[in-house]
Description:
Blueprint: H1 8-48, H2 84-88, H3 103-122, H4 126-148, H5 153-169, H6 175-200, H7 207-220, H8 225-245, H9 258-278
Helix pairs in contact: 1-3, 1-4, 3-4, 4-5, 4-9, 5-6, 5-7, 6-7, 7-9, 8-9
Amino acid sequence: MPYPFDNPLVFVPLVALLGLFVGSFLNVVIYRLPVMMEYDWQDEIAESRGEPLAETERINLVRPRSRCPHCGHMISALENIPVISYLFLRGRCRHCHAPISIRYPLVELLTALLSGYAAWRFGSNPGTIGALLFIWMMITLALIDFDTQLLPDNLTLPLLWMGLIFNRFTDNILLDDAVIGAVAGYLSLWTVYWLFKLVTGKEGMGYGDFKLFAAIGAWLGWQMLPLTILLASVVGALVGIGLILSGRQKRSVPISFGPFLAAAGLIALFHGETINTLLPIFSAQVP
């Protein structure tokens, strides 16, 4: 007798619905985690100087409840339903009518769409669980890096270890390929970083990019690294040139590379094997 989850017409919508609510939580992580890190850094600096800790409201991923940044109105459960509440409120705070960023429902929709697509692409098996974790972390890291030019260790490092552990206990990819992917991912960008710095005297990227690329290698295997870095570099260059030519980005201001790595990692997750097959340059094997 088949299980209900074996039916894509049931499984895919359920996973997409789950993604919608996860996307709502990711919005919280994207906003609050950098703030939490900033408080921690301030506390460490104060402790090292023997100064009292700053008396500021402490936040975590659960408390306090979400509230309007303009008037402080506490968001009720009915005002926090993914996408639906935004549409019902017409994109404005119920109390002060200040505009709510459209990014919140867009993140929820993106998470739902990618989650549903993963369910359809991989089916009801452990591989889908891994794909969902990878997708959710890529979205979170991409937007945090876009906002702050930071890729937090407390996300990139657990993501790396989760990839290795997941591939140890599933048949997603060989563990050897995952380990080589993690090492090669880190060392490749680490090498580029130091070569660029020796030649120009400037830092071309942050250490968080090394760790994110290592995590992508741990999840997808070393075979996906050339494709991922090529896609990230080409798209990043095109976007960067476009922003500079349009006047939205100054040449002296660095552009975060993490979002492009994350997007390329998602493309590799879904279609990497197909692209590697079509383009022999990416399908080399370990000698």
